[in-house]
């Protein structure tokens, strides 16, 4: 590799650098920010810099579908060069998320993508990954019967649905006795139930923390197959939906805000206005550190709003903590918007 010393106007080639010297290297393709280049035989490693976590997010798409590959390349290069940029593909919303240290940081990053890689990008606020769950136990018959000449389709599954503690996920229980459903078709019932839960009950968001127990069923020796029992699982969810008292869940973020003491009252009032819950407060010199739980939906533009609230002197970090039920009024707005979006 070529090593340069960079004094004044132009670089000069060097074979070594003195202790504390500043130099530049060319054509080092596998070098990343935070790595320690060193001479052969040396074992010194400089402690890498601890970069702050990204606090602002946008969802991005290329203006032209033809630029999708170029955008992927650009994002890979940008994240190599700037460790404070994070790129994430959110399967639950189908969005590519670009995260940075603030609105200005994201604007500069988008401008770099356009200037260096020739890709123009559209951006919006990310969608909130809502979830649904159930609050009641109910049993339902899922029945699929189809006859269109020749061999038909037939499958019946009786399923008991019950809520699980938050964070438990999905649980399938096989309690079928006496061969009411042949063993080879039980997994198809499970698959159908999971498909239906993924599509949602209230507003199209995945249903979580549910136990589904198939305890009985019916089959036909000729017409029953895996497809019939997968459809029976789907129909069981639909038949039970109204009795399960479904509710909407939203992601709750754990937020740590550091502000000068003079802005403490304004910041705590703002957290409460965002449906947040203050968990504690600590002193740190002339600053105060507020820890709170706040819904993600209320935090999507917080970087700019905190800057305005504290004259640019406040900082914050946040990370996902848990899901919690959305208050009724806010839930109705989200459900109505989701249904309108599905119909359009």
Please provide a written account of the structure.
- The chain is of the alpha+beta class.
- The chain folds into four domains: 1-41, no CATH class; 56-124, Alpha-Beta Plaits (2-Layer Sandwich); 132-244, Ribosomal Protein S5, domain 2; 248-330, Alpha-Beta Plaits, CATH 3.30.70.240.
- 27% of the residues lie in helices and 33% in strands.
- It has helices at 68-81, 103-117, 186-199, 226-240, 264-273, 302-309, 328-343; strands at residues 2-5, 12-14, 23-26, 56-62, 86-90, 95-100, 121-124, 131-134, 138-146, 153-163, 170-174, 210-218, 246-260, 277-284, 287-295, 315-325.
- The strands form four sheets. Strands 8, 13, 14, 15 and 16 form a five-stranded antiparallel beta sheet that branches. Strands 5-6-4-7 form a four-stranded antiparallel beta sheet, covered by helices on one side. It has a four-stranded mixed beta sheet with strand order 9-10-12-11.
- α1 (68-81) packs across α2 and α3 (186-199) packs across α4.
- The chain is extended and about 85 Å long.
Distinctive features:
344 residues, alpha+beta, Alpha-Beta Plaits, Ribosomal Protein S5, domain 2, 4 domains, five-stranded antiparallel β-sheet, four-stranded antiparallel β-sheet, 16 strands, 27% helix, 33% strand
Structure in a nutshell:
This protein has 7 helices and 16 strands. It has helices spanning 68-81, 103-117, 186-199, 226-240, 264-273, 302-309, 328-343; strands at 2-5, 12-14, 23-26, 56-62, 86-90, 95-100, 121-124, 131-134, 138-146, 153-163, 170-174, 210-218, 246-260, 277-284, 287-295, 315-325. Helix 1 (68-81) packs across helix 2 (103-117) and helix 3 crosses helix 4.
């Amino acid at each position: 590799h070529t090593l340069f010393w960079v004094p004044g106007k132009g670089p000069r080639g060097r074979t070594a650098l003195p202790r504390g010297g500043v130099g530049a290297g060319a054509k080092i393709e596998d070098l990343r920010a935070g790595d320690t280049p060193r001479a052969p035989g040396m074992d010194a490693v400089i402690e890498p810099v601890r970069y702050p976590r990204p606090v602002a997010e946008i969802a991005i798409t290329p203006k032209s579908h033809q630029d999708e590959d170029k955008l992927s390349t650009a994002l890979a290069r940008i994240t190599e060069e700037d460790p404070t940029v994070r790129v994430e593909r959110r399967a639950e919303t189908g969005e590519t998320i670009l995260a940075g240290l603030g609105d200005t940081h994201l604007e500069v990053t988008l401008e770099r993508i356009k200037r260096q890689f020739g890709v123009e990008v559209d951006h919006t606020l990310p969608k909130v990954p809502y979830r649904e769950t159930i609050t009641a136990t109910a049993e339902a018959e899922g029945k699929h019967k189809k006859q269109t000449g020749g061999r038909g389709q037939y499958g019946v599954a009786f399923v008991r649905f019950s809520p699980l503690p938050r964070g438990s996920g999905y649980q399938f229980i096989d309690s079928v006795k006496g061969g009411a459903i042949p063993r080879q078709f039980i997994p198809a019932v499970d698959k159908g139930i999971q498909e239906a839960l993924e599509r949602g009950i209230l507003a199209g968001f995945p249903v979580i923390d549910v136990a589904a127990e198939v305890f009985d069923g019916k089959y036909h020796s000729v017409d029953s197959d895996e497809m019939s029992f997968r459809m029976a699982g789907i129909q069981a969810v639909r038949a039970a939906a109204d009795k399960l008292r479904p509710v909407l869940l939203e992601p709750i973020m754990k937020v740590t805000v550091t502000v000068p003491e003079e802005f403490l009252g304004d910041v705590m009032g703002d957290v409460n206005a965002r449906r947040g819950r203050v968990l504690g407060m600590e002193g740190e010199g002339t600053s105060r550190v507020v820890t709170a739980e706040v819904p993600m939906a209320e935090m999507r533009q917080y970087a700019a709003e905190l800057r305005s609230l504290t004259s640019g002197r406040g900082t914050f970090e946040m990370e996902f903590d848990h899901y919690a039920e959305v208050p009724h009024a806010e839930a109705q707005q989200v459900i109505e918007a989701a249904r309108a979006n599905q119909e359009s």
